[in-house]
Amino acid sequence: MVALLSEYKGAKVRKNERAIDAVFLGYLRGAGYSTSRQHHVWMYGSTRPQRIDFRVAGNPRAVIELAVRPPSGRAELSADANRDELLKLSRVEQREAHMRYLVLLDLSTNRGPITMTALKDEYAAANAGPGRFKRNPVRVVYAHLDDHYHFLWSP
Prior knowledge:
Radius of gyration: 16 Å
Structural class: alpha/beta
Largest sheet: 6 strands, mixed
CATH class: Alpha Beta
Low-confidence stretches: none
Helix content: 10-25%
Strand content: 25-35%
Number of helices: 4
CATH topology: Trna Endonuclease, Chain: A, domain 1
Shape: globular
Number of strands: 6
Number of domains: 1
Strand order of the largest sheet: 1-2-3-4-5-6
């Protein structure tokens, strides 16, 4: 996916989350997954539903949040920048989705990939906040043109 996006160059080519959302949806559907966008999930105590970027139907069901660091980006993939996404995903109940993914696409060209140790340590320091609710683990998937890996974030 990152290699595909790196082929598109030019001043008018947008490489932000909003622009890549459609490409990612096409990728999931092309791979044969029944996928919906902007899936509503009700959280305890909220007056309106939260939206999760993608929901993959079938067995096992999954919810996916997408975060993108554009070529000139800096901290879009940090745990602080994605705290809301982690909270939403960790609170999705098991009956709603068996798997929860936070996909971090790193399109930066002027920086090397973030090391797994650095990213894992940063996300380990993040927590799901106070409250009496069940917290579920989230699989964090990182992809850069030169590296890719994944790890489990436990709230």
